[in-house]
Design brief:
Helices cover about 70% and strands about 0% of the residues. It is mostly helical. It is flat and about 100 Å long.
């Protein structure tokens, strides 16, 4: 567990050492490269010590006695199985894309607005006309547009 206590003297000493150091881009890059190389070496050691878990899938299959053709058949089978599941779903989404992206809803809204506007215009015209076939404005027929 890391030490969580804050030591101001330690900070001051380290900053004094840091300020005494000559900073150059080349020197900084060299330090970073050394640090990266240390990390790579540590990872390589961990990977080598991992044993069976550290080898590639191809090496695991070879050790298990599975050849390249069988491995390729396994890949093809898995790809085909996933494709059979994903393909109908993809086709369904493509077929009904207009529903999911809102195009159909926009068409319905446009049709409803057109129906509302047309019926209001006809009703207003009917109410403003004093006599339609002898009927007064209050008894004027109501028009409903059927699409």
């Amino acid at each position: 567990m890391a030490d969580t206590n804050f030591n101001f003297n330690h900070v001051v000493q380290n900053s004094a050492k840091y300020l005494e150091k000559d900073y150059t881009a080349a020197g900084h890059a060299a330090e970073q490269m050394e640090q990266a190389e240390k990390v790579r070496v540590e990872q390589a050691i961990k990977f080598e010590s991992a044993g069976f878990l550290g080898i590639t899938l191809g090496q695991k299959l070879t050790e298990a006695g599975i050849g390249k053709r069988v491995a390729q058949q396994l890949v093809d089978t898995a790809t085909g199985a996933v494709g059979r599941v994903v393909s109908p779903l993809s086709e369904y989404l493509d077929k009904y894309e207009n529903v999911f992206n809102g195009t159909i809803q926009a068409e319905f809204n446009g049709d409803a607005y057109q129906l509302y506007s047309a019926s209001n215009a006809m009703a207003e015209e009917a109410l403003n006309t004093p006599n339609i076939v002898g009927l007064g404005p209050s008894r004027a027929p109501k028009f409903v547009m059927d699409m």
